[in-house]
From TrEMBL:
Residues 17-84 form the XdhC- CoxI domain. InterPro entries: MoCofactor_Util/Proc (IPR052698), XdhC_CoxI (IPR003777). It comes from Ciceribacter selenitireducens ATCC BAA-1503. This is XdhC- CoxI domain-containing protein. Pfam families: XdhC_CoxI.
């Protein structure tokens, strides 16, 4: 029996998706600095169709992370992503409030 907390946990959702035979990637916040809205250890899970659950940034970089996760699912190679105000992608992905975030993306299935 799962609890309500488990049904909202992205890792439990990923486990369910894998059980359904779906290819799944998990993105994990591994470092933050400044005003990053999600703490280290936060997760975003993505399936091969682009469905996702969870959050690594409160909406600032999710689109870019999902795009990279789909590539990880295709290639099978994990990636370390970094976004921040000193990074040329800062304005494109919406971290204009400041801070830095590093996200590790790997294939689960």
């Amino acid at each position: 029996m799962t609890t309500d907390m488990q049904t909202r946990d992205p890792l439990f959702i990923a486990e369910d998706w894998v059980g359904q035979g779906r290819a799944v990637a998990v993105a994990t916040v591994v470092e933050t600095w400044g005003s990053a809205p999600r703490p280290v250890g936060s997760h975003l899970v993505i399936d091969e169709d682009g469905n996702f659950e969870g959050s690594v940034s409160g909406g600032c970089v999710e689109g870019a992370v999902i795009t990279e996760a789909l590539d990880v699912l295709q290639s099978g190679r994990a990636k370390m992503l970094q976004f921040g105000v000193a990074d040329e992608t800062a304005w494109r992905v919406g971290l204009s409030c400041g801070g830095k975030i590093r996200v590790f993306v790997e294939r689960l299935s």
